[in-house]
């Protein structure tokens, strides 16, 4: 057993990203409205966020609402926004506790489409936790990877149009600098529960060399034990980054 935990520790991912999927099916399976699934999912988010930080993960990213999720019924969208608002208010109320944990809160996604009071809470939470360094928590709300890349490319095109940059000088670093995750390491491990084996427009650029861990468990049933299973699996992976030798790049 000791050996097992030692090997997990030896290859702990620096950045873990989670696609919080399966809330609707969890609720349907219990004859409950979908909003109940989201409510339970939000609780699990808080729990896994704290657990991940306690395990020493430096960056945790959670996919909460995609740019495509606006196609859902108004009522469901409103229930998700209400949960987001509750979380932000609670984060403010629990500021001291979050500071003790060293949480830096960041929100990735297009916030211009979010209700004004939510944007204001987001800005406050980001500002108040700016100086924290232990665990960065990115919450992806109205996030879509393709639009994120398009926005970055637009900024580059503007620099080219102003004559500041030559097209032949554009590098991957220029694209990276325009992403919401600029300055953060790429995710080492991406976890997706709910039985779906796809990215659904999540971190397409950043996931170039990510390891994936899929599970049939629905997000509201996800526990720290599942998180540990993903970490243990990650520790066994051989990451080669195109070379021939396995590299433990992110220890
Ligand atoms: C994830 O759960 C939450 C969001 C996408 C907002 P879903 O609501 O997609 O749950 P399923 O996939 O329908 O079960
Ligand atoms: C992905 O889940 C987005 C989030 C978890 C926020 P979806 O339920 O929207 O993904 P698809 O539609 O099944 O691909
Ligand atoms: Mg889903």
Q: Mind explaining what this structure looks like?
A:
This protein is an alpha/beta fold and 251 residues long. Strand 3 (103-108), helix 6 and strand 4 form a beta-alpha-beta unit. Strands 3-4-2-1-5-6 form a six-stranded parallel sheet, with helices on both faces. The radius of gyration is 19 Å and the shape is globular. It starts with a helix and ends in a 15-residue tail after the last helix. It has helices at residues 2-10, 23-28, 34-54, 74-93, 95-101, 116-128, 145-161, 172-177, 224-236, and strands at residues 15-19, 59-66, 103-108, 135-143, 189-192, 211-214. Residues 1-9 have low confidence and may be disordered. The protein has a single domain (13-144, 187-235), classed as Undecaprenyl pyrophosphate synthetase (3-Layer(aba) Sandwich). The structure holds 3-methylbut-3-enyl trihydrogen diphosphate (2 copies) and magnesium ion (MG). One 3-methylbut-3-enyl trihydrogen diphosphate is lined by residues 20-25, 65, 69, 80, 194.
In short:
This protein has 251 residues and is α/β, with parallel strands linked by helices. 45% of the residues lie in helices and 14% in strands.
| Structural domain tally | 1
The percent of residues in helical segments reads: 40-55%
Radius of gyration: 19 Å
Order of helices and strands: HEHHEHHEHEHHEEH
CATH class: Alpha Beta
| Category from helices, strands and their pairing | alpha/beta
Low-confidence residue ranges: 1-9
In the CATH hierarchy, the architecture is 3-Layer(aba) Sandwich
């Amino acid at each position: 057993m000791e050996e097992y935990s030692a090997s997990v520790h030896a290859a702990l991912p620096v950045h873990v990203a989670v696609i919080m999927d399966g809330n609707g099916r969890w609720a349907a399976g219990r004859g409950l409205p979908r909003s109940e699934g989201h409510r339970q999912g939000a609780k699990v988010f808080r729990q896994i966020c704290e657990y991940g930080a306690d395990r020493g993960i430096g960056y945790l990213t959670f996919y909460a609402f995609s740019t495509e999720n606006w196609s859902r019924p108004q009522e469901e969208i409103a229930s998700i926004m209400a949960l987001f608002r509750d979380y932000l208010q609670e984060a403010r109320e629990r500021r001291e506790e979050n500071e003790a944990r060293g949480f830096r809160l960041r929100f990735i996604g297009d916030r211009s489409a979010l209700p004004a009071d939510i944007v204001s809470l987001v800005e406050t939470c980001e500002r108040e936790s700016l100086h924290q360094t232990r665990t960065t928590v990115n919450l992806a709300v109205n996030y879509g990877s393709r639009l994120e890349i398009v926005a970055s490319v637009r900024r580059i095109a503007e620099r080219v149009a102003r004559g500041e940059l030559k097209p032949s000088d554009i590098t991957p670093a220029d694209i990276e600098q325009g992403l919401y995750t600029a300055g953060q390491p790429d995710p080492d491990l991406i976890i997706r529960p709910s039985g779906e084996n796809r990215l659904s427009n999540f971190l397409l650029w950043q996931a170039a060399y990510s390891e994936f861990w899929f599970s049939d468990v629905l997000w509201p049933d996800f526990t720290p034990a599942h998180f540990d299973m993903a970490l243990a699996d990650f520790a066994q992976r051989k990451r080669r980054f195109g070379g021939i030798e396995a590299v433990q790049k992110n220890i």
